[in-house]
Amino acid sequence: MAPRTATARTRLLEAARDVIRAKGYAATTVDDLCARAGVTKGAFFHHFRSKEALGVAAADFWAETTSAMFAGAPYHAPDDPYERLLAYLRFRRDLLGAGELDEITCLAGTMVQEVYDSAPAIRDACHAAISGHAMTLTADIRAAMEARGVTGFTPESLALHTQAVLQGAFVLAKAGNSVALARDSVDHLIRYVTLIFSHPREDTDEPVQ
């Protein structure tokens, strides 16, 4: 149960974060969320007009709370932007050893796989959460590219690629019921980033694959 010092709305958002990651959006009921949060159904509908509205708010809550966590993470410490990028990827890999599958996966990624067509408002909120986090990497990627003479792709495209690998790693881990599969994927991502920054390319219209 969430602490009773939290508001009913916050407890419902925390319940959504945990229950949806464990069960999926479709399988999670309003009753599940109320039971987890320790609130009445009346309290639920006082704060959210529907389960879909809760889904949108949960994606926004996820973005807000994870942004605070990442902002204070140790990967910002290195002076070199390239080393900060690698430190970020190692930090993401280390997070994969911090709990069970439902505790280390992404709420936004979990929801959007189910509702991308049926609930556009949730889809858009999940997109904002995932892409918004990705864009926090672009300044370091751009500075690292300039410092090392790396060309052939945009900082934004590499930032989004890191999230594509991470989201795919979560899916692979769930499918194989093994966090180790996700860690292996992030290790490959680290090797890829190390490779492209170790071997700068001449300007080209062809992106690095």
From TrEMBL:
Keywords annotated in UniProt = DNA-binding, Transcription, Transcription regulation
* TM region positions: none
Q: Which InterPro entries match?
A: DNA-bd_HTH_TetR-type_CS, Homeodomain-like_sf, HTH_TetR, Tet_transcr_reg_TetR-rel_C_sf
Portion annotated as DNA-binding: 29-48
**What GO molecular function annotation could you give as one example from this UniProt entry?**
DNA binding
Domain annotation HTH tetR-type: ranges: 6-66
DNA-binding listed as a keyword: yes
| Official protein name in the record | TetR family transcriptional regulator
- Species of the source: Hoeflea olei
